[in-house]
Design brief:
Largest sheet: 7 strands, mixed
Helix content: 25-40%
Strand order of the largest sheet: 10-9-22-21-23-24-25
Low-confidence stretches: 1-83, 86-92, 484-493
Shape: globular
Number of helices: 24
């Protein structure tokens, strides 16, 4: 075990002991110093602060220590820090944890993983002390910190003296966040042209892996710029101008990031819609942002399943037109591996094949320079009212923040090959498939298919094929790989699924990452031990569509990790935990996770609905941004996300509003009322559990259940379909008519002894009826 990987805290005296200093002391202590109990072992956290002081005194005096010649180096790096508000310390809880060093297997979900000396030595942030120094500056002088960071990018014109302005307190006026206002730049230029001018034009920008094994392609930065410019010129010729919206309904083809970059190059605002949403969902977005053009493909093949995207778009455009919003152009990529062109329905006056028109345009396209606060993209996320929220991200702050978080959270190096399994239809695909990596000049892997096709080894086959060194995925995928079967077959299933991973080398992997939802400790341990061979740190990131980039995340090599914890805040981020009254909880505690003060990547508003922006995110706890998530902070300052506390369910990393699902259910002619809650799911994190009351005279039946689920799939998409329909003769309501979802959650989770007092309900007996029907 490499003792030089230690990082310890002296909680009594408030000192942070440098990793190397501590390891040298540990070597001294292990060789017989009587002040240390016998339980102390290399890289253990069983370390008593008072013993440290006593040993230090003995070291200084030269008694009882065979390593006196090394004493100056042992003590010179002791520093006292007070600027991290909730300073990590060696609490009794942490001191009881077992510890291993990166490179050793993790035996327990409660073990501590210490960074290895070799990893830390080469990391961007090599120690906790370095992190604290950078974090302190980012909090105490954010203007200077982010101004210096932003200066690493290309600006046609630099911002003024005021780097940022903000008001997060609704009591003081309208909520307002601005960063680098007056600065003129272009994110596409920084992603492509700047990298080419730096000599990386022939470096691979994108590797694309098709649904079928053996189908692949790649583009260098030079080639990517050519294709982006051709599409940008086409958009301009067809009337798309700065500030215009473009709806993008594409699967994970290279044409998806190409389209995003082309829009950014000419100052257009792209709105990517996940190519799994239904026609109704697409209509909502078209009606809201009124795009000049819709870009799609004829079909996509996911595994063995073919999805006709063009039919969905046709239906959405027809309905939008009937409701007063007509889109005159639909650019369609012919994905002939999924569907031949001749099999695609076509409207000659409106539709155009990508391959027929785009290659005819010039590969040179002038950049549209935009202000840092000009909108970059619009991305719709689920809301508790049923209507999706159009999150608006602007250019400058988002550019700086996504690039910086990518660099540090993954310890990115120019030699890395990076693969994020997310779809660009979600924020992860924007920030950490497209913009963040390309701004750093990275080589990015895109995958069209699903992770278990043709078998569960596909991910690791791709890792080996492209020598992926950074792998970023969702806990859902990890849990699906590690999930055990029924008890009789548990050992053979575990062995088979282990082999799906271990039959591949994966030696190229260097850093792992988790996104979308909290990862449970057992899945974290499996990810670390099996996928990463116990040698890859895991960046378990917490952030949201609204935040633009990572907010709480480990920095590989900087400090110990504990399975399931997102650890500490990123530079410039001040997370606070508040109680129900909005009072900030100091030190250890749990409550509602908020953020104090702004950061460059923060969203600026909701599209055409600033009032909803203020009400949803800033009114619950004035002075703070309210994330909607619960969080606990332990005695050591580590943050543990506990999931949503509002009416949003997190299914496989997809945030789905309960009101959206309820609306889809009650649209069914035989559904009188519905209430939806989220319950824990071993693979998906949460699943959708729906309580449904049929209209009078309609009986419960399997056909009705299937029909209700189909209604949700039609209105929203397959990913939002309820896992369980619970028949309900009535719903638990207060006398004012409010549905008591707390009770429904307890019934859904079978925590029947925790249902609590039902005397205030209009009809308390309905709870007993629901419990009786729980397993019907």
């Amino acid at each position: 075990m490499a003792v030089n990987a230690c990082l310890k805290y002296d909680c009594i005296n408030g000192d942070i002991v440098d990793r190397r200093s501590y390891c040298q002391f540990t070597q001294v202590l292990l060789r017989g110093d009587p002040y240390v109990g016998r339980k102390v072992r290399p890289n253990s956290n069983v370390f008593v602060s008072s013993s440290f002081r006593a040993i230090k005194a003995r070291v200084d005096s030269g008694t009882g220590n065979p390593f006196r010649s090394r004493l100056p180096d042992m003590v010179k790096n002791l520093t006292t820090v007070h600027h991290l508000r909730h300073q990590p310390s060696l609490s009794p809880r942490l001191s009881k944890l077992k510890a291993v060093t990166l490179g050793e297997p993790l035996a327990s979900d409660d073990d501590l993983i210490l960074p290895s000396h070799d990893f830390s030595q080469n990391a961007h942030v090599p120690s906790f002390e370095k992190y604290l120094a950078m974090y302190k500056r980012s909090i105490e002088d954010p203007a200077s910190f982010w101004s210096d960071t932003a200066s690493e990018f290309y600006w046609k014109k630099k911002w003024g003296e005021q780097v940022y302005s903000e008001n997060l307190d609704i009591r003081k006026g309208n909520i307002n966040i601005e960063w680098f206002k007056g600065g003129i730049t272009n994110i596409c230029y920084n992603c492509l042209d700047k990298n080419i001018e730096s000599g990386n034009g022939d470096k691979i920008a994108l590797h694309w892996e098709g649904n079928e094994p053996g189908v692949d392609d790649s583009l260098t930065y030079n080639q990517l710029l050519d294709k982006v410019s051709q599409l940008a010129n086409y958009l301009k010729e067809n009337g798309v101008r700065k500030g215009d919206s473009v709806i993008v309904y594409l699967p994970m083809l290279m044409e998806l990031p190409i389209t995003m970059l082309a829009c950014a190059r000419i100052g257009a605002v792209h709105s990517v819609v996940f190519a799994g949403f239904s026609a109704d969902s697409l209509v909502q977005r078209i009606m809201d942002c009124k795009p000049k053009i819709v870009i799609t493909c004829n079909a996509i093949k996911r595994g063995k399943k073919i999805i006709n995207l063009k039919d969905i778009v046709d239906s959405a455009l027809s309905e939008s037109s009937q409701n007063g919003v007509s889109v005159g152009l639909c650019l369609t990529y012919a994905n002939e591996l999924a569907m031949k062109k001749e099999a695609t329905k076509w409207q000659k006056e409106r539709d155009a094949w990508w391959q027929d028109v785009i290659p005819e345009y010039s590969t040179k396209c002038d950049v549209e320079w935009v202000d840092a606060e000009d909108p970059l993209f619009l991305l719709y996320t689920s809301g508790s009212t049923g209507k999706p929220k159009g999150v608006v991200h602007t250019t400058g702050g988002y550019m700086v923040y996504t690039a910086t978080t990518f660099k540090y959270a993954f310890d990115y190096k120019p030699s890395d090959v990076y693969w994020c399994t997310a779809d660009c239809g979600w924020i992860t695909g924007h920030s950490y498939v497209s913009y963040g990596p390309l701004l750093n000049g990275a080589t990015v892997v895109l995958y069209e298919g699903v992770p278990n096709y043709p078998d569960f080894g596909r991910c690791w086959d791709i890792v080996d094929k492209y020598k992926v060194s950074i792998f970023y995925t969702a806990p859902t995928l990890v849990r699906s790989l590690m999930r055990e079967g029924d008890e009789a077959n548990i050992s053979i299933l575990c062995f088979i699924k282990m082999q799906c991973v271990t039959r591949y080398s994966r030696k190229s992997l260097r850093v792992l990452g988790s996104v979308g939802e909290p990862i449970n400790p057992s899945a974290w341990r499996w990810f670390y031990n099996v996928v990463g061979d116990s040698r890859c740190p895991i960046s378990d990131t917490w952030w949201q569509t609204e935040t633009g980039g990572f907010m709480i995340t480990p920095l590989p090599g900087a400090w110990p990790q504990i399975p399931g914890s997102a650890t500490f805040p990123f530079f410039g981020v001040q997370p606070v935990i508040v109680d129900e009254k909005g009072k900030e909880i100091e030190g250890e505690g749990n409550g509602y996770l908020c953020v104090k003060n702004s950061w460059p990547g923060a969203f600026r508003t909701l599209y055409k609905d600033h009032e909803r922006y203020e009400t949803t995110y800033f009114s619950a706890f004035p002075g703070f941004y309210f994330s909607g998530d619960g969080c606990s902070r332990d005695k050591d300052g580590y943050h543990w996300l506990t999931g949503r506390v509002d009416d949003v369910i997190n299914v496989s990393g997809h945030r789905i509003g309960t009101a959206e699902v309820e609306s889809a259910l009650v649209s069914h002619p035989q559904c009188a009322e519905a209430a939806v809650v989220g319950v824990d799911h071993e693979v998906k994190g949460q699943s959708i559990y729906a309580f449904v009351t049929p209209v009078e005279g309609v009986s419960y039946s399997e056909d009705l259940r299937k029909s209700l689920i189909l209604s949700v799939r039609t209105h929203i998409g397959a990913f939002a379909a309820p896992d369980k329909i619970h028949w309900a003769p009535g719903l638990p309501k207060t006398r004012s008519g409010k549905i008591m979802r707390r009770i429904l959650r307890k019934i859904a989770s079978r925590q029947l002894d925790e249902v609590g007092d039902t005397s205030t309900l209009a009809d308390p007996h309905v709870v007993d009826q629901l419990i009786k029907l729980a397993d019907s």
